Amino acid sequence: MTVHTPRDEQDASIIIRDAADKGTLLNVAGNGTKAPMGRPNQTDASISSAAMSGITLYEPAELVISAKSGTPVLEVMRVLAAKGQELPFEPMDYRSLLGTRGDPTIGAVAAMNISGPRRIMAGAARDSLIGVRFVNGRGEVVKSGGRVMKNVTGLDLVKLMAGSWGTLGFLTEVTFKVLPKPERMATLVIRGLDDNQAIEALSMALGSPFDVTGAAHLPDRDRRGGSTLIRLEGFRVSVDYRMNELKRLLKRFRFMDILEGVGAEALWQSVRDATILTDQSQRAIWRVSTAPTKGPDVAAHVAQALDAQWFYDWGGGLVWISTPVDGDAGASVLREATRTHGGHATLVRAPAEVRSALDVFEPQSDALMTLTRGIKASFDPAGILNPGRMYAGV
């Protein structure tokens, strides 16, 4: 397969315009670290942002950074860290879960709306994304947004591109709002809670005025207990005060420890990257978003029918579930669980033949699918950009 690696926006425009004229289907990629996600698309060639790298604007005082789409995420984080700043949404690194190599790109973070545990406080990538440049399926260069957050009238192209998985355009540059890096991070660990008790504790913490930035529960293998994690970040004095108040609020849960330093950072990284499930390499991985209080109901529903393992993030609103890969990899059970309890399920990891046969993303209603097809046609009339990556025929 031909792999196009444009060095700038103009190159990308020429490649895509030529592909549209010839009906050449293009796989849109960065460095390919998330290639095993989504539906396998049948394409004729690939266009990669790997050669489009570099910070194009950084204003620490304005808390804004812009970078070409192929810039490694680690490079962006390094530049920000040198000024005591960070990406607010704590982007997940999928490499361990997917078994891929290479450097994840900042363009993929925007294209797939990737975030981590801090989403409960800071929002997702799309909430910090304030500007994009991209080439649509006609080969036209489009710019939307800029250096400041602002209200818009009409179609918000910045938010539309976030989570579009390269089906609407080839991102060439992204601009994010950033935040100061917290002075201290401390994690309250409560041990021995079952799923329902853990979600109760997490809900109390998240409903408090203490600005929780991480809320997860890692069940034991026997599902009878586990570790419940509540993270606080900020100035040292503030974290001290809030931690004491949080412990007082949750005192009836008893078995508490405070974890800090390298061990705490590694633990939250394992939550962020779902590496808790990576030892189950022959199993499918699902990502379920639901109402936080419904997380245990979804997990219990799945466990009644399947040999499943799971853990909770976002106070129970995000459930990572591992299922056997046989048959439909648990799709029918997961879909029934989300219909019954609310939410939506995405198949993150499974063999290509399984992903080809299933709805990887939560199936849309007829009305929503009509809207999806219409938006796709307006941005990519020839249907050449990542065809079928999200939904069959789109």
Automatic annotation (TrEMBL):
Kindly give the Gene3D superfamilies that the UniProt entry links to this protein. Answer: 3.30.465.10, Vanillyl-alcohol Oxidase, Chain A, domain 4
Q: Which UniProt keywords apply?
A: FAD, Flavoprotein, Oxidoreductase
Keyword GTP-binding tagged = no
FAD-binding PCMH-type domain ranges (all copies):
1-181
**EC annotation from Swiss-Prot or TrEMBL:** 1.1.99.14
**Pfam families annotated for this entry?**
FAD_binding_4
In terms of superkingdom, the source organism counts as: Bacteria
What the entry lists under SUPFAM superfamilies is as follows: FAD-binding/transporter-associated domain-like (SSF56176), FAD-linked oxidases, C-terminal domain (SSF55103)
What terms describe the molecular function in GO for this protein?
glycolate dehydrogenase activity
- Top EC class for this record: oxidoreductase
Q: What NCBIfam families does the annotation carry?
A: PRK11282.1
Q: What is this protein called?
A: Glycolate oxidase subunit GlcE
User: Can you name the source organism?
Assistant: Microvirga arabica
What gene codes for this chain?
glcE
